[in-house]
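Entry 14. Ran structure prediction on the chain below.
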Amino acid sequence: MKTIFFAFGIISVAAALVFAAGEAQSTATSATEHRVTKPSDLKWGEAPPGLPASAKVAALNGDPTQAGPFTVRLKAPADYKVMPHTHPTDERLTVISGSFRIGMGERFDETKMQEMGPGSYIVLPSGMAHFAKSAKESIVQIDSEGPFQINYVNPADDPRNAKTQ
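Output, structure tokens:
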């Protein structure tokens, strides 16, 4: 059951996700507005600095940099890895395509990962340490509450720290 919880938070995420230069705000909807977003409508941008480089993010709704709900999609290349981390808010992931592997705990351990294919849904409670890896190119939808934060268990794993070295 614990392996059902988790996230790319990922992915966790992650998500943090679309600071992808203002895309998030332009996709926010009000409660009285109806909008359909097709895959061809998505505007992919660079993943935020809290996630490893090479992933792309597209906002579907809301703004992950602001308080309130948001939904983004994370496109991860094959072998994309997010080291153990937590989030201060619950995270819900849905695998849209590809093969996404997740594990729980404060140490990256591939033997503790569970493979999730398209349609898989993962709930990660706030504060739960988790890690992820894409077996092949994957798209994961992330629903959470902003402002998005990702806190790595080991600060040396945080891509934001690598840029300052």
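The first helix runs from residue 23 to 27. Will compare against last week's run tomorrow.
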